[in-house]
Design brief:
347 residues; alpha/beta; Quinone Oxidoreductase, Chain A, domain 1; Rossmann fold; 6-stranded parallel beta sheet; 11 helices
């Protein structure tokens, strides 16, 4: 299938139009015309090789909303015309213990990423959603529930599930006391989803500059981490803290905020973290953990929950021709809170 996307040819070059071919449909494949694609901070990091291991040409994009255009002979869950969603993973081994319980993101043999990965059969480089079409194994194509605006739903496939998964893993229920560190793309979704679950939500931030935004998103209060008195007063007051800060940082100020047997879960930083004292962990039987995206069943559950509760990310819709400018704005945190590309702009 001949198609077109926007690709980086190396770590220094801007994204530009790039013609390429998608694979022919296998019996268990779904072909999708892409309608919208979210712009994730990891797209910027990957195309610029900030983490190392980038493969070029690189077509980013792993928050995909589209319409089924063709299906393989063995496909049973999707039909032509269905609106569907694809996230950060497009394949896994499907037979290990983690895959069998639909925790494909934990696949023992490693996942196939939507972009910058390798096809499990051919070894070909995978290309992402900044393109007109994509071909994906049926098991990793999710149904888009009715009632979810397709123009705003795309970031749910990464920012949404990345923050939903720890809320479910650590059993957040009505009345749970949840702290959210940071109020960017991940943080604003953590607030919305935790509020939707009935939690008492506090945004933890370095200053009160985002206080009005946090309260508007549904948070009950704002805790300024630079206010020593307020931090001391908040000691042992959280059941779960979701840390969405995207760079390495010191965890020490936050550990004492956890109650006994409570957890701080890192979802934002793929980085070396500053050292911290183990004393608060030992004395409070507290935990530090991490969490990636969720599996297919959990992601479908999250989409259904968002449709039921009318939860969507706050988005700025852009044409693909503005993607390099959007990357520049992301670097200076000049977006509330996610960019989404209208792929109709890609002629």
């Amino acid at each position: 299938m001949k198609t077109i996307g926007y690709a980086a040819q190396d770590a220094e070059s801007p994204l530009a139009p790039f013609a390429f071919e998608r694979r022919a449909l296998r019996d268990n494949d779904v072909a999708i015309d892409i309608l919208y694609c979210g712009v994730c901070h990891s797209d910027l990091h990957m195309t610029r090789n900030d983490w190392g291991g980038a493969i070029y040409p690189s077509i980013p994009g792993h928050e995909i909303i589209g319409r089924v255009s063709a299906v393989g002979g063995d496909v049973t869950h999707h039909k032509i015309g269905d609106q569907v969603a694809v996230g950060t993973i497009v394949d896994s081994c499907q037979h290990c213990d983690q895959c069998l319980k639909h925790e494909e993101q934990m696949c023992r043999e490693g996942v196939t990423l939507t972009y910058n990965g390798r096809d499990r059969i051919t070894g070909d480089l995978t290309y992402g959603g900044y393109s007109k079409q994509i071909v994906v194994r049926e098991e990793f194509v999710l149904a888009l529930p009715k009632g979810l605006d397709p123009a705003r739903a795309a970031p749910l496939l990464c920012a949404g599930i990345t923050t939903w998964s720890p809320l479910r893993t650590w059993n957040v229920v009505p009345g749970s006391r949840v702290g959210v560190i940071g109020l960017g793309g991940l943080g604003h979704m953590a607030v919305k989803l935790a509020v939707g679950l009935g939690a008492e939500v506090t945004v933890i931030t370095r200053s009160d500059a985002k206080a009005a935004d946090a309260l508007a998103l549904g948070a009950g209060r704002v805790l300024v981490s630079g206010d020593d008195a307020a931090m001391q007063a908040a000691a042992s007051s959280f059941d779960l803290i979701i840390d969405t800060i995207p760079v390495g940082h010191d965890l020490s100020p936050y550990l004492g905020l956890l109650d006994v047997d409570s957890t701080l879960v890192i979802v934002g930083a793929l980085a070396m973290m500053d050292s911290y004292s183990s004393l608060p962990l030992i004395m409070g039987r507290r935990r530090i953990s991490g969490s990636p995206v969720g599996g297919t069943v959990e992601t479908q559950e999250m989409l259904a929950f968002c449709a039921e509760k009318d939860i969507l990310p706050d988005c700025e819709i852009i044409p693909i021709q503005q993607i390099n400018h959007a990357f520049e704005r992301m670097e200076r945190s000049d977006v509330r809170y996610r960019f989404v590309i209208d792929m109709a702009s890609l002629a």
